[in-house]
Specification:
heterodimer; A: 114 residues; mainly beta; 7-stranded mixed beta sheet; 4-stranded antiparallel beta sheet; globular; B: 113 residues; 5-stranded antiparallel beta sheet
Chain lengths: 114, 113
């Protein structure tokens, strides 16, 4: 199993550009989520999904969109990049039925917005 | 919503000493408390977790304690080794709401040899 994969690993955007961060998992996990990691602020939840066709907002959803058309994929879209979105983005997945389970993280995407 | 505070932000210990990281949470309904370790440049990985029906859990050199009344939980690492150097994150969630975790800000642990 590849686990949770993310592409790209690094990305530089100009202010106002849009892009999609890709996330895929091959563990048949129902739950998938996106976090951003900034120095001194831990991991903050952007959006999450409990299954195909179902998404919801986390703590910091503004400026980001998600969709979940399949169990395996959960892309994160930046609509109009801003310097405040410079961060490391992690995708994670887990089982979710009936409780809380270990979240498996992807390797991360380091995004810089100039 | 839930708020998780973590202390200290940095911790330096001598190899072989113990390290303790503390977290407090605000929502008394929270009942699942995992700890993740993140080595430099790597992804976070679960090292131990505890649920609210348990007061303490151990796994070799690491242990987690939970005080529901005071709404705080702690990570204890004994006999620290250089490979324990990493950032440690605590988190909290409500099991019935699934895996929606709220993380603390993290603790940078440095083990000096």
């Amino acid at each position: 199993n590849a686990g949770v994969t993310q592409t790209p690993k690094f990305q530089v955007l100009k202010t106002g550009q849009s892009m999609t961060l890709q996330c895929a998992q091959d563990m048949n996990h129902e739950y998938m989520s996106w976090y951003r990691q900034d120095p001194g602020m831990g991991l903050r939840l952007i959006h999450y999904s409990v299954g195909a066709g179902i998404t919801d907002q986390g703590e910091v959803p503004n400026g980001y969109n998600v969709s979940r058309s399949t169990t395996e994929d959960f892309p994160l879209r930046l609509l109009s990049a801003a310097p405040s979105q410079t961060s490391v983005y992690f995708c994670a997945s887990s089982y979710s039925r009936g409780g809380a389970y270990e979240q498996y993280f992807g390797p991360g995407t380091r995004l810089t917005v100039t | 919503g839930e708020n998780v505070e973590q202390h200290p932000s940095t911790l330096s210990v001598q190899e072989g000493d113990s390290a303790v990281i503390k977290c407090t949470y605000s929502d008394s309904a929270s009942n699942y408390f995992p700890w993740y370790k993140q080595e430099l440049g790597k992804r976070p990985q679960l090292i131990i977790d505890i649920r609210s029906n348990v007061g303490e859990k151990k796994d070799q050199r690491i242990a987690v304690t939970l005080n529901k009344t005071a709404k705080h939980f702690s990570l204890h690492i004994t006999e620290t080794q250089p490979e324990d150097s990493a950032v440690y994150f605590c988190a909290a969630s409500i099991v019935e709401y699934g895996n929606k975790l709220v993380f603390g800000a993290g603790t940078i642990l440095r083990v000096k040899s």
